[in-house]
Amino acid sequence: MAFIRHNLVRIVNTISVLNTNFWRWFHQLASPPHVFALAGRVCPWFAGLAIIFLVAGTYGGLVLAPADYLQGDGFRIIYVHVPSAYLGMLAYMVMASSAAIGFIWRMKMAHGLAVSAAPLGAWFTVLALVTGGIWGKPMWGTYWQWADARLMSELMLLFLFLGYMVLRASFDDRDKADRISAILAVVGVINIPIIHYSVEWWSTLHQGPTIAKLDEPSITMDMLIPLLIMIIGFTAFFGWLLCKRLQGEILKRERQTRWVDGLIKGRTA
Amino acid sequence: MDIFILILLRDLRLSFRRWNELAMPLLFFIIIASLFPLASSPEISQLRDYGGAVIWISALLSSLLALDGLFRVDAQDGSMEQLILSPTPLGVIVLAKIIAHWIVSGVPLVIASPLLALSFYLPLEALPVFILAIALATPILSVLAAIGAALTVSLRGGGALIGLLMLPMMVPVLIFGTWATDAAVQGENPIGALLLLASLAILSISLGPLAAAGAVKVAME
Fold it and tell me: Touching check for A159 and chain B: CB below 8 Å?
């Protein structure tokens, strides 16, 4: 009995230590100087990862991967297109989940992260649309194909990003802008799958026989590996930009505080 | 539950007193629809082709137009603050306001839509499905537009912004609605699209008022 009790006490102690550690860590995330420093420390890691993986992926995608038997070298644009389409989605998820955290726990830093993610996501979505169009010209014979579900659902995602940014910009009061745009982001996140699947069903309904649809052959390993490397590289690149933007956002929000003042004087002195 | 009925009746009474606002969505609906034959051609075969789409887009746009004042009037005269302070959850009150609004702006749309459909030469057999689809869709549109109105309640020029925020989210309604209409026109089975519309209606009515209430609460702080 004594043995069991002793062990139980140890387990409970460990849990409570972990628990206080977690909460300390969590509370530190509410402190702007701490988050600023944290983003600054994480930033070079993301930057290094991004550079290594993007260079390796580009080389692999443009040189090592074999040309497609049907699309020739034209298919190589997927090494930009697929990662940017994926990052558009990821950015929305980051934006919406940090906005929700900010709304629920009233964490200003989480709102800062949401604000920083929005324009990045919008640009990645634009990049996905543009590269999709460039790919579509030789493959479909047109830059823009209304009947394609993926293009349409990327377009709707772009509209959601733009709506979020415009709504934010309409408020003078930053706190209000944070919390109201958080609600929009969460409503959007519930809607994204509904929009996505409705558009997909719509396109299968309207698939006329005139639209030449290339059947999707399963991708080979030597094409897939550069793609995976590019996806990791793009994600690290996103993380890099996100850290930089978050730091900028924190400085903007905290510009009247003493620690920012000290930071600037320390840098310039 | 008492306050639910009270708010519902109050909002209904207020909107029946302002008959101009009551008529606006309906007029807008009919005017947009009647612009299409002018912009395209009035030939019967073409009207029949795009008639369903025209009516659906008109419904989307007119549902956005009318909701600008849904929360703003109450916010400006101070009654919204009292409603927030009441012990009833704000979501329930918002739901009552949305239902009242749907009765005065959605139901006229449902009643007018078969007339428009006939004027676009949609076949008579397709009308029951079409009316049912519009009747299922207008509550969803009202809820979505109410969320937009709640998000922009403290902004001066909120009206245009509601469209920008909410039209992308109305895409599923447009797709399922036109799908049901097309299926009915071509004599196919529309039940799938109708069920999807019904489930969207349930989803939006159960979650939408909470989002709108949250936004109103933040805006009134």
Answer: yes
